[in-house]
């Protein structure tokens, strides 16, 4: 019986190895979601910002939050995040481009709260998730923008990443937690008394 079981395990791994590449590969995949938030009188800037912050604190392993005062006057329409290169025009940008790297970071003008969060609990398996979220008020409500990245190292970097690569066709990876965290963000904001509408997302 034990011999049969061991043979089945070996056969399964050989099959998986044939399907999954063991070439060392590092891949970064971005995504974003933009929500419009409306709430009745009495729901404050701080309540919306706090809902976002506490959700990230419960879901991520590290969170950095920057609070700011609302712009005056408030913009007429809902703002949107922008991707900018912090090293544009410098030698660093030239070196990055030459090596195939795209150094762009999200920024939110007029945000009352900006949060950068990361989850490195699966780092030993070559996976890492980062979140950038901001809340930008406007005259009709708030714009909640979420920008995410999922970084994965696959192949034969070490025994852990090799095992993760071989098992990924069966178990998936930690990128599945990104939409779950975003949905949790929306639910907590709704619980504060707001109406939340998805305006734009990638992947859709």
Helix and strand topology:
Layout: H1 2-19, E1 25-38, H2 45-59, E2 62-67, E3 82-84, H3 91-98, E4 105-107, E5 113-119, E6 127-138, E7 141-154, H4 159-171, H5 177-191, E8 195-202
Antiparallel strand pairs: 1-7, 1-8, 2-5, 3-4, 5-6, 6-7
What does the model show?
By secondary structure, this protein is of the alpha+beta class. The chain has one domain (23-202): Double Stranded RNA Binding Domain (2-Layer Sandwich). The protein has 5 helices and 8 strands. A hairpin with a 2-residue loop joins strand 6 (127-138) and strand 7 (141-154). Helix 1 (2-19) packs across helix 4 (159-171) and helix 2 runs antiparallel to helix 5 (177-191). It is globular and about 55 Å long. It starts with a helix and ends with a strand.
Short descriptors:
single chain; 204 residues; alpha+beta; Double Stranded RNA Binding Domain; 6-stranded antiparallel beta sheet; two-stranded antiparallel sheet; 5 helices; 34% helix
């Amino acid at each position: 019986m034990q011999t049969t079981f061991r043979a089945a395990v070996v056969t399964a791994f050989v099959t998986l190895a044939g399907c999954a590449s063991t070439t060392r590969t590092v891949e970064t995949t971005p995504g974003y979601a933009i929500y419009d938030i409306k709430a009745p009188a009495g729901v404050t800037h701080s309540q919306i910002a706090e809902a976002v912050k506490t959700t990230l604190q419960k879901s991520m392993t590290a969170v950095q939050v920057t609070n700011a005062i609302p712009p005056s006057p408030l913009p007429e329409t809902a703002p949107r995040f922008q991707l900018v290169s912090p090293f544009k025009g410098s030698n660093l940008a030239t070196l990055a481009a030459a090596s195939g790297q795209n150094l762009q970071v999200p920024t939110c003008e007029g945000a009352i709260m900006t949060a950068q969060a990361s989850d490195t609990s699966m780092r030993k398996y070559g996976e890492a998730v980062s979140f950038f979220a901001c809340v930008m008020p406007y005259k009709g409500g708030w714009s909640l923008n979420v920008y995410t990245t999922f970084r994965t190292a696959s192949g034969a970097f070490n025994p852990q990443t090799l095992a993760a690569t071989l098992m990924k066709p069966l178990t998936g990876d930690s990128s599945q937690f990104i939409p779950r965290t975003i949905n949790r963000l929306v639910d907590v904001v709704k619980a504060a008394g707001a109406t939340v509408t998805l305006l734009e997302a990638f992947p859709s």
